Amino acid sequence: MVTGDDPASWPRDNHVSLAEEHDLFVVLPATANVLSAAAAGAAPNMLTATVTAAKSPVVFFPVMSAEMWAKPAVRRNVTQLRADGHDVIEPATGPRYDVALGRFVESPMPPSPPQFIETIRQHLAVNIATPRSLQRYAQLPLY
Questions:
Q1: Residue positions annotated with a catalytic role
Q2: For 89-120, how does the pLDDT look when each residue is reduced to its tens digit (9 = 90+)?
């Protein structure tokens, strides 16, 4: 998990402190497994425990095979996450190399860096509530 904080503070971080200290959570890649756990409110690992504890908005960027993305169970999980107030970004479909198949396939893809940055900027503009968080984000480098 990338928090934007000084690595010296990482040993004290746990799902409660991470959930309390951040204004926005971004999950990329949001696999079918992560979407399922988050939709169920399960907390089998630090990521999903933090999502479950989060008071701040959570933005999921799904990345998986086209077959998985089309499964009714995955679609139900996306619907549940949205009903719970999370934002699940519809992935664009495009060619990606599938290592297991040894060829290019059409499948949901992660956003391009400019699309990702713009989505996050939009969420931060809406969701940042305190001057402290504005100061924290102003210090982060933009690539």
A1: 15
A2: 999 999 988 888 899 999 888 898 999 999 99
